[in-house]
Amino acid sequence: MGKVLGDVLGLAAGVAVSPLPIVAIILVLATPRGRLNGPLFAIGWIVGLSALGAVMLAIGGPAGASTHQQPATWVGALKLALGVLLILLGARQWHRRPADASQAQLPKWMAAIDRFTPIKIFGLGLALAAANLKNAPLTLAAGATISSAGLPVGQQIASLAVFVIIGSVGLLAPLGVVLFMGDQAMNMLGGWRNWAVRHNIAVMAALFFVLGLKLFGDGLGILIS
């Protein structure tokens, strides 16, 4: 289990560094219902990561993700494909980056976030976790890594739980700051938000490249072993 955790921690860290979802929860926390909607957003995020990872675990068992305690060939092919996808997305993000970081803009839907109902806030957290172009491949790769290690079911669930917890740190940090510091935290979170907005595309491009190369190398290693 220790080796599996070592493999998925890097993927979880990649999920945790998600500038746009971090900006979203800061905006949610700044609304009049922030103390209600902030936790709902975080719960939606956790449910999204957990559900997507659980689906991969459920597929990996019957599909024979582990053969004699070694990852099956299809696991290597999946990681290779996810790696290529992330590298291509990284190239696209880098090409789209603004020449001046100060010109970066938020998505239009964020302007209406203060009018979102609690159900929409929960759904937003879930979508940004499970339908995110970076997080979905990383979560699927983590699930494939866990299911291909030949661990007992209990250890697989525990490994997925560690992945989800680490992958949620980026969102839980602003939430914890607000819950403990109250309104005094908003100035500090405003600085975080502005930095994340300015550097979102560059950070995402770098993460896509680095994590894509990692998955590509992992998949290639499985296929040629």
Total number of helices: 9
The counted number of beta strands is: 2
Largest β sheet strand count, sense and barrel closure: 2 strands, antiparallel
Stretches with pLDDT under 50, minimum 5 residues:
none
Strand content: under 5%
User: Could you tell me the mean pLDDT?
Assistant: 84
Distance between the termini: 21 Å
The secondary-structure class comes to mainly alpha
Query: Over all CA atoms, what is the radius of gyration?
Result: 18 Å
Order of helices and strands, N to C? HHHEEHHHHHH
What report would you give on this structure?
With 225 residues, the protein is mainly α. Helix content is 76%, strand content 2%. It is built from nine helices and two strands. It has a two-stranded antiparallel sheet with strand order 1-2. β1 (66-67) and β2 form a beta hairpin. α2 (19-29) runs antiparallel to α3, α2 (19-29) packs antiparallel against α9 and α6 packs antiparallel against α7. The mean pLDDT is 84.
